[in-house]
């Protein structure tokens, strides 16, 4: 009770003592990337034209992405709005799930999305463009290409900034012997760059929601796994993990599925929750051990004739008070040592 109260005071909602106990046994933490380790708001950092100038590329891409709700599409349309770029309404618009969008206007077809989308249209990507994509992805950028029916005309370098406290959280978890992994839909090179920057033990890239659940099941063979996420796609993984942790802004279904809810954007709360849970388990073991010792001592005293009813009751009540006071020490566990 003391631990759950302390957690609530620090912006962590724990769904019962069993959830706190599970958190204390965790030795692997898997993080969703977007919105959890990152700010969840991708920004366009660079526009590169291969056959057209930057403004023309931005205008075409923003027109194509106008009806898309994907975060990368929002980044492009917001960039166009910032630059006061005029867009047109496409005559035809189609979302290609997991790849990008197709659009048609001015009697011309356009494609905005991943290299997979472009290649699936039979459009050749030259070696120079391939080299540029590899260079940008190794720097941690997600590349969005734009093409017509003939050629790739440009590329957007987009990045979702890592939360400033994420590195400290990963470092703290590693120090206490907890392995950390990232699960992301990004490609291998982008995931590798982000993983290096964060100091993670490993990562799994190009994952679909079902793939994340499969990875969690595999990690459970190595130990007790906690999954941290916020999106509706993370809900199955949170449910499949030994411990599900939802962060602020999580969808209703994700928050409902989770065993623990972090009520702020500060990722350090996760490290604090693990620290509190481990302290709670240690405290519980101490109290159980002490209680067993007192019971055995009282029984031996009664058998030997050294302890009678009054003295036995006195020592028992003293032991109960000591157990309660020891439990109340959990109210003093704080996050100062995490900084």
Query: Given the helix and strand composition, which structural class is it?
Result: alpha/beta
Assign the CATH class of the largest domain.
Alpha Beta
Task: Report the CATH architecture of the largest domain.
Answer: 3-Layer(aba) Sandwich
What oligomeric state do these chains adopt?
single chain
Estimate what percentage of residues fall within beta strands. 15-25%
What number of structural domains do the residues give? 3
Average of pLDDT? 85
Number of strands: 13
Radius of gyration: 27 Å
Strand order of the largest sheet: 1-13-12-11-2-9-10
Principal-axes shape call: elongated
- What's the CATH superfamily of the largest domain, by name? HAD superfamily/HAD-like
Q: How many separate helices?
A: 14
Distance between the termini: 26 Å
Following the backbone from N to C, one meets helices and strands in this order, namely: HEHEHEHHEEEHHEEHEHEHEHEHEHH
Looking at CATH, which topology of the largest domain would you report?
Rossmann fold
Share of residues in helices: 40-55%
The description of the largest β-sheet is:
7 strands, mixed
The low-confidence runs, each spanning 5 or more residues with pLDDT under 50, are none
